[in-house]
Structure of Non-selective voltage-gated ion channel VDAC3:
Amino acid sequence: MCNTLTYCDLGKAAKDVFNKGYRFSMVKIDLRTKSCSGVEFSTSGHAYTDTGNASGNLETKYKVCNSGLTFTQKWNTDNTLGTKISLENKLGLSTRRLMRRLKHQ
């Protein structure tokens, strides 16, 4: 079933370009992409035109699906590098599989 838009929603995307976080003395950019190998990149930055100050950051995320590992690195213009390694809960999944096998025997 298709939802119909109301009249006020028709120009919402265009209004958000100028109304959502927009300042006259600031330039802001946010970019996100994903490579063919599965690495996710996201970067953001902003610059103040009146003072000339600028800052930004870069984040990369790589997931190893079969082992449940996720590597996340963040780097910003203050030259701070952060690395986070997380492991998906594989114990719960293995326990569920074991219970299913026991139930079918």
Remarks:
- The chain has a mean pLDDT of 79.
- The helical segments are 12-19, 90-104.
- The chain has one domain: 25-104.
